[in-house]
Fold each of these.
Amino acid sequence: MSKRIALDHPELKHPTTKRAKQIDADLPYDHLVEALEAQSEKKEVLKVAHWFHEKDLRIHDNKSLHHGSELAKKAKKHLICCYVNCPADEAWHGTSAARVDFNLEGLALMQKELKELNIPLVFLHADERREVVPTVVKFLKENGVSHVFSNYEYEIDEIRRDIKFLKEVGDDIRVSMHHDQTVVEPGTMTTGAGKPMKVFTPYHRMWLGIVKDDPDLLNTLPPPTKNDASPSKELKSLFDSPVPKAPKDKEFASAEDKKRIRKLWPSGHAAGFKRMDSFLSQISNYAATRSNPAKNSTSRMSAYFSAGMVSIREALSKVQKYNDGSSDFTESGASPGVYSWVREIVFRELYRQTTLTTPHTSMNLPQNLKFDFVQWEDDEGGWEKWYKGETGEPFIDAGMRQLNTEAYMHNRLRMNVSSYLYCNLLIDYRRGERYFAETLIDWDLSNNTQGWEPSYTVFNPVSQAEKNDPNGDYIRKWVPELKDVKGKAIFAPYARLSKEEFEKLGYPKPHVDWKETKQRAIERFKSDMRDASP
Ligand SMILES: Cc1cc2nc3c(=O)[nH]c(=O)nc-3n(C[C@H](O)[C@H](O)[C@H](O)COP(=O)(O)OP(=O)(O)OC[C@H]3O[C@@H](n4cnc5c(N)ncnc54)[C@H](O)[C@@H]3O)c2cc1C
């Protein structure tokens, strides 16, 4: 049904729902595991490599890097590292300029840290996505690597890339992969009927039980062991690999943008750790204030987790220390702040399990495939107002302006602006999902696609603002046209001020009537999905 969308927005192309179901029924991940298990033993270790991806950009507590290092140490061989810079991959995913810069800065820091350990980090280049695998294979073979390690990525393209990688290295190189992104391995939490769990509440309950009973899941691993001094000579050229530059289309729009974003989001493991420590000093306020965007009391760790600059085990082992050394993060075992923060981490864990076990969710299709049958509106005016933060709904506009300025948006706003786009404007939710990818510093396919999963819940931006931003401080900060509006008029100035008062503000009137469009959305969803058979 989405032909019109596919034509207008090629980046939103997706397979048919029938094809999606076939893919779900024959998990690419299972094929990857089979291919890994089918490898022949390779006893002789020549050189060991770790292949970094965009989600494990740290040398501390990096599972695959650690295991690679252990093998190299045992065999008294050298460890080398590589990373493939592929601008076409960033263009495909729509990665934001802020995120590209964050990653590149992080890679530069890692290269220095690794050099101190006599371990080279080599930047390879692939113009096209299909060149990534041959580029790495060529590099490994040319450098006499016998064993290569990398961490799993759970998105379908990345799983397919790794299957292709295994095929291309053949028997020449032994590949080992590790689960690094989560505390509990994705895919392993199943229902009584043996199916992967998809519903949050039972998943959360079971996850808390597993971690309480097995605190070792939070153990962290040390950085790799230093190579002996000889690789500096033998592999001299590998140490001179220049850090890639951002492609032209991923540069910041201005020097001012770059300065602001780098100040807000200093890259690297040390900066992430510092942020986590400072968050812990105020975690006791988290439960009470996390939904109030003006309080800014959430951790802002998402960018560090998405790029893997801080591991989730590192963060949770800090929380565990704070929790008197206990990994009991249940409501009765932890303070309200710790309980609620860990609960958010569990959403992140579930979403990785969903990406792995429902691969169509990383192919521009909703988890509930019926939503692909909804006929969306072409409201270009509404779209432009939405992304610029000029819809005339103060809470929505504040959220979008925060996003455009900080490359970040508070979770409460993400919920509201997404609902407003696909319910009140009836614009295909995938356009918003893509806009988030193109703008956020913390873009993460699993969290973003699950966050954008359409539903019948239509958020009311006025009551949401009244409840979560009761003094209107967040709105005043981001929508300066309204900074002098007093009382409850701040939440709905067009409806609550006189015509003259409103006109003086220089603020747009609402693009749509919320009540009418709520009704329109519910009717549209019902009628378009009634007979849908994905
Ligand atoms: C429409 C929509 C799109 C989103 N897109 C992204 C995205 O691209 N990247 C991203 O990391 N998060 C995304 N989220 C989830 C959430 O909004 C952010 O993780 C959170 O706002 C980050 O701020 P924080 O680090 O201060 O969070 P905290 O409140 O401090 O939470 C701690 C960590 O838990 C995880 N987390 C928190 N809330 C959620 C959630 N709802 N779902 C999954 N994990 C969560 C994050 O890793 C976060 O850093 C999205 C949510 C929605 C509704």
Amino acid sequence: MGADRRRRHRHPSVQARSARDLQPREDVGRGQPCLCGVKARLIAVGRAKAGPEAELFRHYNARLRPPLELQELPEGQGSAAEIRRREATAILAAMAPNTLLVAMDLGGKAPTSEALSTLTQRWMEAARPIAFLIGGAEGLDETVLTRAGHLLSLGPLTWPHMLVRGMLAEQLFRAQCIRENHPYHRAWRPG
Ligand SMILES: C[S@@+](CC[C@H](N)C(=O)[O-])C[C@H]1O[C@@H](n2cnc3c(N)ncnc32)[C@H](O)[C@@H]1O
């Protein structure tokens, strides 16, 4: 990293920061399920078992101020279409009507981390409850995709839904660091 770029990361407001700031903070976000003042939940199909995927989510979610409130929904039964339809009914019932729904979907827009940071700023300014959504093994029903205010992709590859929880939490943490000019995010790319 060149000196110019290093200087850019050392914004006066973050000069005193250290790696310790990346540790989970016990004193923030208590009882406030929100993303910087706006309610943020993660609605996810399936129940996580203890293991590396659950640990990955826990690791990054604990670094969000405040953390996402996780709401797990049971997996649907039946054919693939029935599963999606049943899960959609539960998903739509879990949200207040004014919720800004950000659905994780391969077919959505795949922003850069910087663009995602800008998007999160915009979502916060909308001052509506925010819910991120991760589908189950059969994906999300059309009715849910239509209801979503934003379809967010992590790229065209299909990832296991339990892994997507941790990947989303990491990207939201990265977005938080970009908004705060924290050096966790290194923007450098080869020219
Ligand atoms: C195993 S995937 C479902 C695959 C399904 N065939 C589809 O195309 O949606 C389970 C869930 O993980 C999330 N997911 C998986 N890969 C993703 C990606 N690249 N970007 C965004 N979300 C993804 C989505 O919420 C998806 O509904």
Amino acid sequence: MIEVRDLWHIYEGKKEALRGVRLTFGNEIIALVGPNGSGKTTLAKHLNGLLKPTKGEVIVDGMDTRKHSVAELARVVGYVFQNPEHMFFEENVFREVAFGPKNLGLSEEEIEERVKWALREVNLEGYEDRSPYSLSGGEKQRLAIACILAMKPKYLILDEPTTGLDEKNAEGIKKIIRKLYREGHGILLITHEMDLVLELAERVVLLYQGKKVFDGDVKEFFELDLRKYDLDRPRLLTISEEIGLEFFRSVEEFVKALEMRT
Ligand SMILES: Nc1ncnc2c1ncn2[C@@H]1O[C@H](COP(=O)(O)OP(=O)(O)OP(=O)(O)O)[C@@H](O)[C@H]1O
């Protein structure tokens, strides 16, 4: 379980980026949303100790982030950054995924096993000898997830995992996220894409000016006036409301309901 207790983060002694945030989560898919500058990245960086609290505390599976190193916390909380290509530096996919487990000091055998497993999880088997830079946008995103998975973290933070991807690649990422969740990972999705929130999240946390202003289920979240927070309503919800249908999470559900009506 991750517990964020009355967390304040003040940059350079001035900018109050987080102001008394409280949050507890475990094995669930949470969407962390809010307008630009609301504090999402700052909060996420506290969860694996990249930032330390100015005030309050963050406890990750019993570990106080102030008392543990980023390396220790990274075994429990994996962070897949936005624009993953900036992260790659090895000559091939195998070495890229092996980098994390190598740093954990694992045996060659265990490293190989983890790399194979992580590549299988994201459907990149057979890519071991390819250069990371030769991959497509969707494949790069999957590789970034594999690199983090190879550390076997319990929690995953995914920063804008589908931004810039076409529909097919975005679908692939969504499937992987659902699978990881079913396998027991807690997933925190940072996103501006409300369609993704609608489809994937069970729970939504909304930050505004460094404060948590909403924490609840996805249906309730979409009842808020999102324009106040500079967020769009998902197209699917707008369309279903216009034609008098109920709340739908995916195009498939929507089409089924339409078919039932006719
Ligand atoms: N290193 C820093 N030094 C000073 N201020 C910072 C620093 N990093 C972030 N901030 C400020 O803290 C506030 C929160 O930033 P943060 O990046 O956490 O927001 P965000 O919700 O992730 O935004 P976005 O959606 O644009 O990525 C912003 O006002 C930002 O300008």
Amino acid sequence: MDTITRRLPAVLTAVALAVLLAWPSITGFYSYNDGYYNGIVASACISAVLTISLNLAMGYGGMLSMMHTGLQLLGGYGAGHLVVKAGAPWYAGIAAGVALGAVLSAAVLLISLRATYLYFGMITLAANLIVVEGGKEWEDLTGGLNGIVGIAPGGLSKTAFYYVVLAFLVLTYIVQRNLVRSGVGRAAMAVRESPDAAAAMGIRPATTKALVFSIAGGLAGLAGALYALQLGFINPDVGLLDNGLVFFVGLFVGGIGTLAGPILGVALIALLVELIKDHARYTTLILGVALLAAMMVIPRGVVGTWGASRFGRRPDREDTDPAGGLPDSVLPPPPPGDVPALEGRGLVKHFGGVKAVDGVDISVGSGTVHGIIGPNGSGKSTTVSCLTRFHQVDDGEVLVFGETAARHPWAVPSQGVIRVFQIPHLFEQQSVLDNVLTGRRRRESYGWLAAVLRLPAYRRQDRAGRAEGRALLEFAGLAGRADRLAGSLSHGQKRLLEVVRAAASGPRVLILDEPATGLTRTEIAALARLCRGFRDAGLAVVLIEHNVEFVMDVCDQITVIDSGTVIASGAPDHVRGHPAVLEAYLGRPDLVEEATP
Ligand SMILES: Nc1ncnc2c1ncn2[C@@H]1O[C@H](COP(=O)(O)OP(=O)(O)OP(=O)(O)O)[C@@H](O)[C@H]1O
């Protein structure tokens, strides 16, 4: 039974594709009005292309786009201009539509890099208004309110154009699927869920967003060009925001952030609109109700709900004990000479009147676990943020293997310094294995085109990455959970996964901020094993912890910070009995004494 239900989506997809391929023959055989029915399905396919584009931007990229109807309009203008005014063939019109959509998206993204989700949405809304109003007013170029007419796919019959549209829908779906399942897509989802965590793994949020939004824009332009060729005209009404309702409803009913959701959603909406065509004036009302119902009953949409159900989920495997070692491919190269792996000299960071870090010196060697301890609010995390450039220092310098650290947090990982945050920053909507693969992104050398075309470079790296990811999960005892959503793990497993994900970036310096908080004894033992494994592999591990017993057990060197300054540093035995340390832990001297054998 389980096998049948798991195969159901593939079977339904094959049946749907067969029906779409045979559709002109079916309608030709059964109806005198075959042109009308072919047109409806072709329009739905074009809507699905636009909805996939919206899905890429919003669902996978986490960017609220209110400009997709505007992009569609622009694509239509591009096609209209080339085909009607320049007399170019229809495929040149399509290329123009794609290019215009991509360029406008990239431009809008670049002027709104710092905008948060809602503000970005408002900027795209403004861009949409400008395109629509520009279309109305710039008559020489756009034909004003009447638009451009007579846009025909010269040389193609209606049936042939139907197949062109179908081919572009399949192509758009493949672009989406190949992108989403590659390191490029995983990087986009990482930025969507936590730009800081993505940056800490060397993924540059701005570039990633620009790339995904431009590709989405290109696909929206494609939809616009196809739409203009299908209708034979393009005018500013196409860009009006209420036209976007169909795409939003389709996306949410089908399932935002799923591969098949946009197509299924649009198919359902197209069917609904056809069924109520005799009551067309209620269409908007009915679509509104459908959207509300979908949000309340199946917020993940049909495809998302199926995927999360026991039918759609991959079966769990048995939990396994930690086994094996670190894969060779993630081991760091030998350190260059006898320089510290990471060094902070005279670090100062003030927040207004608060001296969070006030002249900290710290030096971490390769092949050691270096603990940073201190009371709450003593400046440990701020020190780490200075070392990894998440905070720009007020004074002092940061050196990585003797060289000045890069200026931006997303650039520091390229020097081999990877950080795990105090507050969990997992990509919860991705699988456990995908989280690990996201960590590996900075070591992958293929771009979006290689991913979309699945070139050999992509396939080789993808295969190697998956094998390495599974080996890392096995080392951490998480292999049995590889295919589950990361959000479904226990707190302790999530913390271990974050450490594994960081290790997948191939770090030379690994900084773990309070990784043991909330872990069970077994999980702490697994974490200790990981830390020792990293050290034995030659990594410099920095461990910020409150669990003194764990620190004393695992660390080779310890720096103690209080009120933003270093009060002691050295081997655990030296630090344990240091008077200043006992003083700093006053009120909890038991923390230190507990650790004394
Ligand atoms: N972004 C910020 N803005 C203002 N003050 C801050 C900021 N970050 C930290 N601080 C302050 O700086 C001081 C040091 O904080 P920090 O988080 O570095 O300490 P910590 O030793 O890591 O504490 P804990 O063990 O509780 O995590 C605290 O007084 C804190 O309130």
